[in-house]
UniProtKB/TrEMBL annotation:
Protein name listed in UniProt: DDE Tnp4 domain-containing protein
Organism of derivation: Nippostrongylus brasiliensis (Rat hookworm)
Domain of life: Eukaryota
Length: 160
């Protein structure tokens, strides 16, 4: 992983301006799977917090939109990196399913987390001043929808 230092601080992501044709292959290589899980989970939490704050405080969103030249390139790069990561992870899960292997719940959850982060970052890029999508964090258990075929009619009372 190559980080470029342009300013006195080091960013979380590699420099989006660097001409790295191998980003698709090189950046997503994982040295430590646990590290990726932690980073994506933390990034999801931070993204959800910022998203909800900006949804409630439109004035902050408008101020951020005014200086979008400074943060938009990084978010565009983040969306690209996550897109590559999720595509590879989905392909891996699909291959496991084709082989008949047991579904790796850890990778499945990581895919959900990465999709949430990518979706939120994309919402910021599209229109940070009009955030209206409802996003469920990965840590909240979703209730399974009951399909119409599974609905059981209540028992009728017998007349005595």
């Amino acid at each position: 992983m190559r980080f470029v230092r342009k300013h006195s601080h080091v960013g979380l992501l590699p420099d989006p301006c660097a001409d790295d044709e191998d980003m698709d292959d090189g950046y997503v290589e994982k040295r430590n799977e646990k590290e990726w899980d932690i980073e994506f989970t933390e990034l999801e939490l931070a993204s959800m917090l910022v998203y909800n704050i900006l949804k409630q405080r439109r004035s902050i969103a408008k101020e951020l939109a005014a200086v979008s030249y400074s943060w938009k390139p990084r978010f565009q790069y983040l969306v690209s990196v996550i897109r590559v990561f999720t595509r590879r992870l989905k392909e891996k899960l699909d291959e496991e399913a084709k082989k008949g292997d047991e579904l790796d719940m850890k990778n499945s959850k990581l895919l959900t987390v990465a999709n949430n982060v990518g979706f939120i970052a994309n919402c910021f890029l599209v229109n940070i001043c009009d955030l209206h999508a409802k996003i469920s964090p990965s840590w909240i258990q979703r209730k399974r929808r009951i399909s119409s075929g599974e609905i059981i009619a209540p028992h009728k009372r017998r007349r005595s």
